[in-house]
Design goal:
By secondary structure, the protein is an alpha+beta fold. It is built from nine helices and 13 strands. It has two domains: 29-192, Sulfite Oxidase, Chain A, domain 2; 199-297, Cupredoxins -  blue copper proteins (Immunoglobulin-like).
Length: 297
């Protein structure tokens, strides 16, 4: 090799080496909201956002404007099986599974909780999101929430609600079949770690791993957790905590069974939906699950 060729080869190697060291690193876009989040409510229809948000202190929340939500990727589907509507409708909105990333939730905060104006809660774990693809509804038949048709209960369903293009139950435990989580009157969404949300209601006691208790847990987690709470998790619409429900279950099992199946027989003014399909084995599983919680708090 001649001297000139040798020098050229060395120079080329140095240039490649320098370019590798000087090249800017290719990094992913850091997590954060894709639309503005405000510290205070600016409009009546702002949606409150809470839970584990990047750059937001624990316990604080933010607000997002309806118009900004419309700027997010939308889906448009025809809905015919949602019992909140009196007939088929077309809804437009944002897939719930996309919202944690779009609104700046921390990477492990993928469970979405929809909180209604009456403190009812609907919980959407990752498995539910992937199976059913729930939608945060922004428009119904092309109309904004102020002009939505009244729901099947003859009341306004805004400011937000959640629906599905098509719901098909994927789970059955004893006589409990998985139910669609379709709350209306939604005013807030929380993004949290799934394990942290369910930790307070995990089965406890010496029989925690028994099949019956695990079955009761699966039912209570989907059904009772919407209106009853423990250690800061769960809905508060019923104003009766997990331990109160547990004490009722073990002190008066017949009353508990009647209230679960047909609550209006005991309290005609109740807003609780009954589960008349629950057989004795299903009620027994719920009682077995709740029993250790009666004196846990």
């Amino acid at each position: 090799m001649g001297q000139r060729s040798w020098i050229f080869t060395v120079l080329m190697a140095l240039m490649v080496s320098v370019s590798l060291f000087d090249a800017p690193a290719q990094t992913e876009r850091p997590p954060g909201p894709r639309i503005p989040l405000h510290r205070t409510r600016l409009h009546r229809d702002d949606l409150e956002i809470g839970g584990d948000l990047v750059g937001v202190l624990t316990g604080q929340s933010r607000f997002v404007n309806y118009t900004d939500l419309l700027a997010l990727p939308q889906v448009s589907v025809r809905v015919s099986g949602d019992t909140n509507f009196v007939g088929p409708v077309r809804i437009e909105g944002v897939l719930l599974e996309s919202l944690p990333a779009l609104l700046g939730a921390r990477p492990d905060a993928r469970l979405v909780t929809a909180i209604c104006d009456d403190f009812y809660e609907a919980h959407y774990p990752i498995a539910y999101q992937q199976a059913h693809h729930p939608i945060l509804v922004l428009k119904v038949n092309g109309l904004d929430p102020l002009h939505w048709p009244l729901g099947s209960d003859k009341v306004p369903m805004g400011p937000y609600m959640i629906s599905h293009a098509h719901f098909q139950s994927k789970m059955q435990v004893l006589s409990h079949r998985e139910e669609p989580q379709i709350p209306w009157g939604v005013v807030r969404l929380d993004f949290e770690n799934e394990a942290a949300v369910y930790r307070p209601i995990l089965p406890i006691g010496p029989d925690a791993q028994s099949l019956q208790v695990q079955q009761g847990y699966a039912i209570a987690r989907e059904n009772c957790f919407r209106c009853h709470n423990r250690e800061g998790q769960g809905g508060t619409k019923a104003k009766r905590s997990w331990s109160v429900v547990a004490r009722r279950a073990i002190t008066d099992p017949q009353w508990f069974a009647t209230y679960v199946r047909a609550p209006n027989k005991i309290n005609p003014a109740t807003q609780m939906s009954g589960s008349p399909q629950y057989d004795d084995a299903t009620i027994a599983a719920l009682i077995a699950y709740f029993k250790p919680f009666a004196h846990a708090d």
